[in-house]
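sry for the spam today, last one i promise. struct tokens for design, 138 residues
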């Protein structure tokens, strides 16, 4: 007999009673780990044990298929978001195409060029004096 942790059941139970609002992935994992470590009543109600132990299942003879990671990544809403999705069984699977970016023209980014009233030197848009002759640009 081999003992295996049923992570899917543990996360489903956790998400059914907790909300991820205002939480980062790191904080969610930390809270989940603490939740798994909480002391709960053992079956029979006499002793206390870590909640993690309630998700340990005994499996028969070791088969490779039993220990393959669950890679099913279809979206199945649980907990607080189930009402929001109204029974949606999975999210759309088609890939979204990246947005098309249009190149920016330097002319559109830079304000209209100014020139010195005295010598004709090209100046920055907010220049008060000419960098070549020093005359005031008024």
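last one done:
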């Amino acid at each position: 007999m081999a003992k295996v942790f049923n992570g899917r059941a543990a996360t489903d139970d956790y998400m059914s009673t907790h909300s991820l609002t205002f939480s980062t992935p790191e904080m969610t994992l930390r809270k989940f780990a603490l939740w798994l470590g909480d002391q709960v009543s053992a079956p029979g109600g006499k002793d206390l044990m870590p909640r993690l132990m309630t998700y340990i299942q005994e499996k028969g003879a070791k088969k490779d298929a039993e220990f393959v990671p669950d890679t099913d990544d279809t979206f199945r809403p649980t907990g607080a978001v189930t009402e929001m999705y109204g029974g949606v069984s999975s999210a759309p699977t088609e890939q979204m195409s990246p947005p098309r970016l249009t190149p920016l023209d330097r002319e559109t980014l830079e304000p209209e060029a100014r020139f010195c009233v005295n010598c004709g030197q090209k100046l920055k848009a907010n220049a008060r004096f000419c960098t070549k002759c020093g005359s005031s640009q008024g």
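The mean pLDDT is 76. ok im logging off now
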